[in-house]
Amino acid sequence: MLTVVDSLPRDRSTIGSDEPISIMFDDYLSLSSLSTDGIVLSSGDLSVDVQLSYNPVDKAIVIKPKRNLRVGIGYSLTIERNSILSWSGQTGNEEYRLNFRTDGPIGSAAQPISYGADIQPIFVKQCGCHGFEDDIHPNLDQWPSLVDTPSSRQPEFPLISPGQPLSSYLILRLLPDYPTVFGSPKSVTKEEVRRLVRWVRRLAP
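The chain above was modelled as a monomer; its predicted structure follows.
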């Protein structure tokens, strides 16, 4: 059974009116099942249009209202039973409900990410088969050499697919036990993987 293990905000707490809502599960989710069908964000009789994304690092769906929520009122998020599937086909057999109130907007700007300072050191530390003088594997010194280059271990995955972290082998390899991806576990922090996911998403054409 697929189970919710945490949320941001927590039930009956507050969130900035411009912040997304994250619902974390105990297993990776099936991307083909992710849809706003069965997800309702409302305040009283007013329903709020939302868009959905997936955070694989925290095994979380991220729900973003299409417009900032109204400040100082209560909202309820409902996820209907069986509306979300895990990678292995499990569903939640209970309706999930989260109640929260809104505070003023946070207005946090996305921090810039430098490949040389923020990304390359993670790859160098984790990917011992790559190097600056290795003719077999792409050179980690220049990130364009990683884009759309098939993985030598699993050629069905490019090393980096711009804008698509879950189609990028170097991201999938750093997610613990991600289905269909082979290799020994890597010693990497969640914050490092979050940074990599943000970087790949920003490479979208």
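The two ends are 38 Å apart (CA to CA).
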